[in-house]
Amino acid sequence: MMSSNSDIEVMSDDLDPDYSDSANSDNEVKENKTRKRKINKHLWKRVQRKSNLNKGLACTSKSGINMPARRGYECDCKNRCTSKISVEEKANILDKFNNLADKNVQDSYLFGVRSVARRRPDIMKKRLLGKGHPIENILTDNELIQTSKRNSSFHYKIILAAGREIMVCKKALAGLHGIKFGRIDRIGQAKKSNSAPPTDKRSLSEGSRVLKKPEALIQQIESHINSFPIRISHYTRNRSQRKFLSPDLSVMKMRELYVEKYNSEKYRQWKADNKTKFEINYDFYLHIFNTKFNLSFGKPKTDVCNACDRFKNQIDAAENPEGKARLNQEHSVQQAKAQKFYDDLKRFSEQAKTDEKMDVISFDYQQNLPVPVLPIGDIFYKRQLWVYNQCFYSAKTGHSYMYMYNEVEGKKVQMRQHLS
């Protein structure tokens, strides 16, 4: 007589999850994963491209255009500002600017290197008179300052090594930092209006699209989701925190039960006219369900070998070709051993049909059966009774024998110990 070995017995016990309040494994994954993976914006291509631009590195634009690294250039003003700065000092200025690596920080730095000088009204009047404007048409001093497009000028001061300061022109400032005039002009407008340095508001529209809800309301939804009994997949609990709710539930059903529990009056009205609007809609409830919990419904559809799953993860993560080839070879050996077991099982099963002194008995549990099964809202919050059905199969006769019992009469572990 040939029976399953101890490894197969463990697998038969782990095929179905049992209800539990928490995982009991010492090897449970420490990372708190949710149903949807967390957003790692620093890995997005557009974020990496933006970071490279701020650092002055070469990159490829969204449209596929190759953008060279940031580099400085000389000014051609009458004072030859950049010629007063050594090559080493120019490189240090550009490196310091690139190392800031954040556009807002860079703009704050540029905001501090410039100063504003208000233009004198008397000089402005002389220029207007020199252009032939009648004196009676010239505005007062305050009107000139308020209406003139050039009512102020800017001075740019660069601090070099050992605290040495040097005045430069606008083009020299742009050339030393490898930027365009438009960026300097935007910072100048903020400086002239005595406001704070400008901030980069691109890619910040996300906040306006997110529904803002009170924290107490979010905690209420989390408490409601936690009120449902859960079960844990013992087969995958060593590497996964995924827990399972009743297969009769769904997010739509849970949200309806939430409204019925916390807003019963509107719920009855909605049942009557099907038009009543609720503060918590389905999309927001689903958002909390996906981002705060790692829950699914029913049980795992397929059973995966621990070794195969481990090899798959290691092979996908391997960067060295030699290491990946070694893992593929080890995986093939493991699969060959598993296939050898099933080949032996099949061979002995065929032999048992003709050998009177031999039989092959295999046994396994079928899916756990929760009872009672009732489409009533209150039943989803209660702990249901589990009924187990163990199947025994004789390869000699081809007959199957079922033994059904509930969890009050015994656990699966007790039955396995009795059989062993």
Description:
By secondary structure, this protein is of the alpha+beta class. The chain has two domains: 6-37 and 215-419, no CATH class; 70-192, no CATH class. It has helices at residues 6-14, 45-54, 87-99, 103-112, 121-130, 141-147, 170-177, 181-192, 206-209, 215-226, 251-262, 264-273, 282-292, 306-317, 321-352, 412-419; strands spanning 18-19, 59-60, 66-67, 114-118, 152-159, 165-168, 231-232, 243-245, 295-297, 361-365, 369-371, 385-394, 400-406. The two termini are 14 Å apart. 11% of the residues are buried. The model is unreliable at 1-30 and 206-210 (pLDDT under 50).
Shape from CA axes? elongated
Tally the helices. Answer: 16
User: Which structural category fits the helices and strands?
Assistant: alpha+beta
Number of strands: 13
Strand content: 5-15%
What portion of residues is helical? Answer: 40-55%
Domains, number: 2
Q: What is the mean predicted local confidence, pLDDT?
A: 76
Low-confidence stretches: 1-30, 206-210
Strand order of the largest sheet: 1-7-8-9
- Listing every helix as H and every strand as E from the N terminus to the C terminus, the arrangement reads HEHEEHHEHHEEHHHHEEHHHEHHEEEEH
Q: How much is the radius of gyration in Å?
A: 37 Å
Measure the end-to-end span: 14 Å
